[in-house]
Amino acid sequence: MDKVTPKDVFSANCERAAPLLKQLRTDGIGHMIGGKIEPSVSGDSFETRSPIDGAVLATVARGGADDIDRAAKAAASAFKAWRDMPAAMRKKLLHRVADAIEDRADDIAVLECVDTGQAHRFMAKAAIRAAENFRFFADRCAEARDGLNTPSEEHWNISTRVPIGPVGVITPWNTPFMLSTWKIAPALAAGCTVVHKPAEWSPVTADLLAKLVKQAGLPDGVLNTVHGIGEEAGKALTEHPAIKAIGFVGESSTGSAIMAQGAPTLKRVHFELGGKNPVIVFDDADLDRALDAVVFMIYSLNGERCTSSSRLLIQQGIADKFIEKLTARVKTLNVGHPLDPATEIGPLIHERHLAKVCSYFDVARKDGAVIAVGGKAHDGPGGGHYVQPTLVTGAQANMRVAQEEVFGPILTVIPFRDEAEAIEIANGVQYGLTGYVWTGDMGRALRVADALEAGMIWLNSENVRHLPTPFGGMKSSGIGRDGGDYSFDFYMETKHVSLARGTHKIQKLGI
Ligand code: NAD
User: Fold this and answer.
1) Is 258 close to ligand 1, i.e. is its CB under 6 Å away?
2) Residue 191 φ/ψ region, left for φ over 0, alpha for ψ in the -120 to 50 degree band, beta for the rest
3) What angle do CA 141, 247, 113 make, to 5 degrees?
4) How many other CB atoms are there within 10 angstroms of residue 465's CB atom?
5) Which of 9, 93, 330, 410 lies most in the core, judged by the most C-beta atoms within 10 Å?
C-alpha cells in the first residue's frame, strides 16, 4: 500500500469538512433550549466567519435576555429529575455522550479547525480529550455526594454534598469544544443542569455538542445552549435569578464584569482567566528538552492558550546560546492552513484579535525591545488572519510586552542573574496561572515552585494535564479550581447534618 502523505491527509480533511460546512450553511445555528433547536425570540442573528478566508460558516441565532430566560427555566424544570436520577444512570448517560463525541471526533476536529483557525495536529486530539472529560467525571457521579463523618461526644455529625442547581457556563473561543466539556461534564456529573453560552467567535462545535448530548439521551433541558454576544446573552445569564452559579473561562476583565453583574443575585463564581506565564530556564537544565518545551508552550495552539509560557526567563550565562537555538526554531515554524497536518500555526481567530496581537509589535519596539523573529502579519493560504511567529528579545520585565497577555504566538525573552531575580521577575505581573521551571537542581526546583505565585507549576515539563489535579490560577488569573473533586466543590453545596445521641443537655429557658 502507498504511504499516506501529509498532502493526502490535508485533502482528506478538506473532503471531510466540505459536506459538514455545506450543511452548516444551510441549517444555520440555533439555540438548544429544552431539547429543541430554536431561533432567538427577537429573530436576531449574526454571522460566524472562518479565520482562514473570512467565508461565512453559518448564520447564528443571537440570544438575548428572553432566550436566556427560556433556557434558565428549562434548566430549572429539568433540575429535580436530573439531581434525583440514580448516579449509576447519570454515569451511563454521560458515558454515552463520550461515545457520541468519539464517534464524531474527526468531524469535530475539522470543524474546530475551520471555525477557530487552530491547527489540525492539535485539534485531532481535542475531541478525544473532550470525551475523556466526560468519562472521567461520569465515573465520579456516585462519589460526588460523599461527605465526612465528624462525630462529637453528643452528636453524630455527617456532611454530604448536593448539586447547587441550574448553573451557567460561559466559555471562550480558544479550543472551545474541549474547554466547554471541561466545565460542562463535572456540572452534569454533580447533578446540576446547565445553560451554556459559548463564545460568539466560535459557535460551531458548541452547537454540535448540544446535539450530541441530546442524541446520547440526556433528558431535555439538562444541557441548554444559548448563542450570542457576551454583553447580551452572557450578561443576561449571569443576572438570571434561577442560575445559581457561573463557571466562566475568559479574560480577567470579563471576570470582573461578571462578578459585578452576578452580585445582586449572589452568584457563586468560578473563574479561569488570563495568564502571562513564565518559563524559567536555569543554566544547569537539560537545555534540549527545555528548548522543546519553551517552543511548544508558546507556539502551539497559535499561542491562544491561557497556560502558554509567554515569558522566557533565561539565566544570563546561557542566554546567548539558548536564544540562538530558539531563533532558529522559531524561524522554521510552519504557518499554514489549519487542515494541513504539516501546519504548526494557523490563522488567529478573528481580525480584531489579529490587530490586537500585531499592535504589540509596535508596543515592544517603542518600549525598546527587539523583534528578533517575525513581527508582521503573514500572508497565508486563504488570506486570513495569519501572523508570523514572533520572538521578542532585549526586553525588560516592566515592558508592556512582558506584562500584558497578548494571546498570540509571541514569546518575550527576559534574562536573569540568579534564583532570587528569576522569582522576582516571574512574580512581577498581575497574573498567576502557571509557571514552568527547568533546572537540574531538585532543591532549587522545589524552592522556586514554592516561591512562585501561580496556581499550577510544572518542573522540567511542559503543561501535561492530569484530570484529578487542581486546575486554576491565583491573582488576576482566577478564582477556584477545577479537576477531580475540586470541580464538585464548586458545583455542589456541602450540607451538614447533625444527629443528637439523645444524651446532651438542652438549656431550659422560660421556666
Ligand atoms: P472573553 O472574556 O472576551 O470572552 C469569554 C466569554 O465571555 C465569551 O463567551 C463572551 O461572549 C463572554 N462574555 C463577554 N463579556 C461578557 C459579559 N459582560 N458577561 C457575560 N459574559 C461575557 O475571552 P475570550 O477573548 O473569548 O478568550 C480569551 C481569554 O480567555 C484569555 O484571556 C485567556 O487567557 C482566557 N482563558 C483562560 C483559561 C484558563 O483556564 N485560565 C482557559 C482558556 C482561556
Assistant:
1) yes
2) left
3) 95
4) 12
5) 410
Amino acid at 135: R
Angle at 245 between CA 241 and CA 247, to 5 degrees: 135
pLDDT bucket at 2, cuts 50 / 70 / 90: confident
Residue matched to cell numbers 478525544: 128
Count of helix runs (H) and strand runs (E) in the chain: 17, 21
pTM over the 0.85 mark: yes
Between the CA of 222 and the centroid of ligand 1 the distance, in Å, is 23
Rounded CA-CA distance 457/313 in Å is 15
pLDDT digits (tens, 9 = 90+) for 277-324: 999 999 999 999 999 999 999 999 999 999 999 999 999 999 999 999
**Nearest alpha-carbon partner for 220 in 29, 76, 27:** 76
Task: Choose the catalytic residue: 141, 192, 306, 358.
Answer: 306
Residue 338 is classified by DSSP as: T
Q: Tell me if 271 CB under 6 Å of ligand 1.
A: no
| Domains delineated in the chain | 19-47+56-273+477-495 (3.40.605.10), 278-459 (3.40.309.10)
Percentage of the chain modeled with pLDDT above 70: 100
Distance (Å, whole) CA 379 – CA 349: 15
